[in-house]
Design goal:
The chain has 226 residues and is an alpha+beta fold. The protein is 43% helix and 16% strand. It has a seven-stranded mixed β-sheet with strand order 1-2-3-4-5-7-6. It binds coenzyme A.
Length: 226
């Protein structure tokens, strides 16, 4: 079996991320998102940018996403998908939540944006929250494949495997697409665009929705190792 086939087989059978995975997954996400247009627009400039990106992803994974139980990765760690399950609040804006939550998020955003770009970060976070759909759904917060492995099908395989599990629940799914290059990937997975929700002057941020699927008789999600 070629290396690509092994990696694809892994991505089709992901495992749930654990707290100890946060540092390695944060490195993967910081590398994958370094050239993302929206992240590039909000992230601080200068020599502190790589460290800011790393800390941002680490804190989101460790403090918020991994404890919710829907972060999935491949055995060799080359790809990750971060889902937030139904009922978990968007929690992305500095304008909501209690004081402790606001301070915690302010620190996370400060690391990513620095003071000069904090308002950009807040504008994007507020746009995301304002347009966040009501009703139960899984929220695809992030998906990332290590740069050297992109374009081999890993992202599609990981998306398909985790969506199959979501389909078992009949739940809808939602995402905000921060890179026009990804639109075809998400459309192939069944997402449809609901329009650009980016704040003024920001790169496009496409709201995308996937209706819940009826569970197929006899299907089971055994492709995901618990
Ligand atoms: C987006 C991403 C997860 C897709 O995973 P992947 O394994 O590279 O993608 P696949 O090989 O399964 O599918 C290819 C599709 O992914 C998209 N894509 C995005 N970036 C790509 C890249 N660098 N190389 C190849 N395809 C890419 C395209 O839609 C492509 O479809 P197309 O060939 O018809 O244009 C991955 O490229 C990545 O980590 N990109 C950087 C981070 C990012 O953009 N995350 C999502 C933010 S909304």
């Amino acid at each position: 079996m070629s290396e690509r086939h092994l990696l694809l087989a892994e991505a089709a059978r992901p495992r749930r991320a654990r707290a100890a995975d946060a540092p390695q997954l944060a490195r993967l996400m910081a590398a994958a998102f370094a050239a993302d247009p929206v992240i590039d627009w909000i992230a601080r400039q200068g020599p502190q940018r790589p460290h800011g990106l790393l800390r941002f992803f680490h804190d989101l994974l460790a403090m918020r996403a991994i404890p919710l139980g829907e972060v999935w990765t491949t055995v060799s760690g080359g790809a990750v998908v971060v889902w937030l399950p139904p009922g978990s609040t968007p929690g992305s804006t500095l304008a909501s939540g209690g004081l402790a939550e606001q301070l915690r998020l302010l620190v996370v955003f400060l690391r990513l944006c620095g003071i000069p770009r904090l308002l950009r970060g807040q504008a994007v976070a507020e746009a995301m929250e304002r347009h966040h759909p009501y009703g139960p759904h899984y929220h695809l917060a992030f998906i990332a494949v290590a740069p050297r492995l992109q374009g081999l099908g890993l992202g599609s395989a990981l998306l398909e495997a985790t969506l199959a599990r979501i389909d078992e629940t009949g739940s809808a799914a939602y995402l905000q697409n921060s890179n026009p290059r990804n639109t075809r990937l998400y459309e192939r997975a069944g997402f449809a665009s609901r329009g650009n929700i980016a704040p003024r002057h920001a790169p496009p941020l496409l709201s995308m929705w996937r209706e819940g699927r009826t569970r197929l008789a006899g299907y089971d999600s055994s492709s995901l190792s618990q």
